[in-house]
Design brief:
364 residues; 14 helices
Length: 364
């Protein structure tokens, strides 16, 4: 019924239809007024509107499905037609057939069940089908003549007598109202459910365990290349020329694979010596740090902040520890002194200098 209208539903008209339809004294209403227009939805009116005439066999008073619905069919016969091999009805506590899980149904049965959920017997419970719905789907698959007008008319009347938030047949109701001249002036419209086409069936109804209905499997997308080094040839590493535009001659650069192992440093040769960290080196580093701290204090003193300690206080808290440690070679002191003396801002103190000598002079 998605063919009715332009694919959008005026929910206000549908709600008004069902609100005006409710009558506690009439359990099976067949007409209703919507915005001053009389809308009929009895069996004959719907058969004419939907163009679904009822075919009754000679000598019978009811159509084929109506006669079948009055019987108690064999559940095994229904399950053999609706279920995949090895599946059937779920039983209740008394061992009677209760429902069929939708995942156990064939692709064809699932497709017709979707149609019944929205267009014949509306419901929001779609994970399984009851025994009565299974009989309906069985009748459709077996191509039994059906009185669609009576079925829909009866379901619309039942909706008004039940406390449900699902208002069935919205597209049909909108089409009936428009045919009788009801104008839609609502700005809030809702979209219809997607059409039941091949794409929808393949996505939502295809049972992979169904041995009868099969679809061509979609082409698998190429997986991303592994970051591990590839052993393929250069022709495999570059994209195929068919994937590029015919007029394009740009060649994509081939990135060489990353090495799998981190190269180790070369071993020391005979002429090289191993680096040794001596106490004199540590003393020179600490002396440079202390000198830098002194220069920073001098700069802060020049800014005139009252909270900055004086140089005398700084020397008291950051006093230099004393003499430089000696080494067996005796050359560590002179090396450290030469390294520090390269600073242009202040002369480097000698290792044996006193506390007063290591304090930089104040800048004027």
């Amino acid at each position: 019924m998605n063919d009715f209208g332009d694919g959008n539903i005026d929910v206000a008209i549908v709600k008004e239809f069902y609100a005006n339809l409710y009558d506690p004294e009439d359990k099976s209403p067949k007409e209703v007024k919507v915005r001053g227009h009389l809308i009929k939805f009895d069996e004959d009116a719907l058969k004419t509107f939907l163009k679904t005439p009822v075919v009754v066999e000679e000598g019978e008073s009811l159509c084929a499905y109506s006669r079948f619905a009055l019987l108690r069919p064999d559940p095994q016969e229904l399950a053999a037609k609706l279920c995949i091999p090895g599946r059937g009805f779920e039983l209740n506590a008394d061992g009677q057939p209760l429902k069929i899980l939708r995942k156990n149904m064939t692709t064809l049965a699932q497709t017709w069940s979707v149609l019944s959920f929205s267009n014949l017997i509306p419901t929001s419970h779609t994970s399984d089908v009851t025994l009565d719905r299974a009989k309906l789907i069985y009748g459709i698959i077996m191509k039994m003549d059906m009185n669609v007008g009576y079925l829909i008319s009866h379901q619309i009347s039942l909706t008004t007598q039940h406390d449900t938030s699902r208002l069935g047949f919205p597209a049909l109701i909108i089409a009936l109202c428009k045919a009788r001249g009801v104008q839609s002036n609502s700005r809030s419209l809702e979209s219809l459910s997607p059409a039941i086409n091949l794409v929808y069936i393949k996505k939502n109804c295809w049972n992979l365990d169904d041995p009868i209905v099969t679809f061509r499997a979609p082409r698998k997308a190429r997986g991303k290349r592994s970051e591990a080094p590839s052993t393929s040839t250069s022709e495999e590493a570059t994209p195929s020329s068919s994937t590029l535009p015919p007029s394009s001659t740009t060649e994509l650069p081939v990135i060489p694979p990353a090495p799998t192992q981190i190269p180790l440093p070369a071993p020391l040769s005979v002429g090289q010596t191993e680096f040794i960290f001596t106490p004199q080196m540590l003393h020179s580093m600490l002396q440079s740090i202390h000198k830098g701290q002194s220069i920073i204090m001098q700069s802060l003193q020049g800014l005139g902040f009252p909270s900055i300690m004086s140089m005398e206080e700084f020397d008291t808290h950051m006093v230099w520890p004393g003499d430089q440690p000696s080494s067996s070679g005796g050359g560590g002191a002179s090396t450290a002194q030469e390294t520090v003396s390269e600073e242009p801002l202040a002369p480097a103190p000698s290792p044996a200098a006193t506390e007063e000598e290591t304090t930089p002079a104040q800048t004027p």
